[in-house]
């Protein structure tokens, strides 16, 4: 671990006061903002996330708001996912690609109305791409970053906690749908979504002033449910196969390489900027793809640079995220593997900073 | 200070091994990359920077490379600075603005040839804006992030150190000019520039493989000059009035508000996207502007959020960067102040987290 020098450039959030009071011990920086990553320890936070409920300050999932008559057209230009069937009230996970088919971001997109959308972004300034395209095409839209800070409630007891604060009707929300729920005299967008596979919600807080009241209301209401402050958990997200933009994929990668082909309707996504570039890979498939990889031996260190994956003396891939899983008793990891060696059961060698490790390609992720 | 959770997403650099060996104690994150900020202490590093010579890993100053027949046209679209007189071999500091005149970045731009430019960026993904504009306008250019990692040599003894490694001819480089200098069998772009006012150079290393040889050569050659590893120093940069994008200015601000009007030729920068929006402010001047502000009393803490600047009960500005200056015996700071109170000598009150402080607007920055 290293010390982080704080400055205004690494933005605080409407919940930072609560995060500090809860004893945060580790941050990362995400979209020029502080993202709490650790409270007690990665392992303790992991066990708790999988058994109780946590409140996560994910304000760093900044929104790119697209508003105006051309909003729908613009959002379709960004993604190979076919949006014609998407209704207001729905959230879609969308690969965003450039003209070469390279991934620029992998947000969840919230369709508020036909002409108003929020793109809830991963760690890159997607605002700049969307503004550039809107300007270059002279589209009739407004594009900006509104004052919206998501707060996630994740874990098996998330429904019970949310019902305490927002009423029982919140339980009826379907996966990747949102509704409007009252808090502090305001209507908030609340979606059933989140960056874990333990179940839960994301609350899109508009206006920072309600930040601490909302944080405190959730912490208070959750006492009997053993609520704690938490954050996206490295171990749980790898077990769950949840990719991280900048870690597991970059603009070098197509969605198909990332195993996101199911979110691409390349044949019918008319208007998508990267469509031409993706037609061939959509038909023939990629030559390398994301795979779950289990590594034997003692807990591995954090991945700070890609670890080469070898088949004998031949490099056939790289590990981008890895952690020891207490629940599965093995080092779980996310790797990009060439098609010659990506079948489940393939045995490979990962060159970690601590030396080579035996590894095996798994059929599917753990959660 | 907080702990930083390391991951592949916060990229290491070709010099990270040297930085670690030199005993780095603090990082920030800049363009998704580690930027070393502290070695011994901010104060010790400051005194040393002003008296000797330091080697800085500023790889995080990523390049946006623009190549092709439309390269010059595209770069002019990005900035209100008139580029018609710029020659290959020159570096220009350039405000980059969007269609509303808001600052998107404030890079140094290196004109390698008529059709090849490097934009050496501050902390925002300017690549996305440049790619979006190039695509929207169907320009005949290639835009990408090349494998180029700047290394800065800063301090009063920088000339002597550079001459040891690159030969005496490096001393003849004029300010904001670059030349090609041999190292390890390759020709490197070396410019007289850098993010301090202590004098020095920036070496644009192409290809990471030469990173540690270059780092080690500078450290070895500098033994007699008391060379140390360093980084952009908070105290020195405030004394020098060097702005930091994301701290002192954002896309809310025009270049004129940031005191960068002298880098804008709004009347003649034909093709600049933000030109129309800036014409009025260029003529009439802004209603608020960056000012040096001296605060009395004990050393202030780090600025993590804007500190309001008050004239009585009226808010007339905000402080975005501040530190205690040992050399000037006062808290130096960078503030945005409304025109009613921006004259030198104006006495104001800054609301710091430790309570209100008396402050006075200075005529100019300290270095």
UniProtKB/TrEMBL annotation, chains A, B:
GO terms for molecular function: aminomethyltransferase activity; methyltransferase activity. Residues 300-361 form the Aminomethyltransferase C-terminal domain. Substrate binds at residue 202. The keyword Methyltransferase applies. Its EC number is 2.1.2.10. Residues 30-266 form the GCVT N-terminal domain. It comes from the Bacteria. The keyword Transferase applies. InterPro entries: GcvT/YgfZ/DmdA (IPR028896), GcvT/YgfZ_C (IPR029043), GcvT_C (IPR013977), GCVT_N (IPR006222), TrmE/GcvT-like (IPR027266). GO terms for biological process: methylation. Keywords: Methyltransferase, Transferase. SUPFAM superfamilies: Aminomethyltransferase beta-barrel domain, Folate-binding domain. It holds the Pfam family GCV_T. Gene3D superfamilies: Probable tRNA modification gtpase trme, domain 1. This is DMSP demethylase (DmdA). It comes from Roseicyclus elongatus DSM 19469.
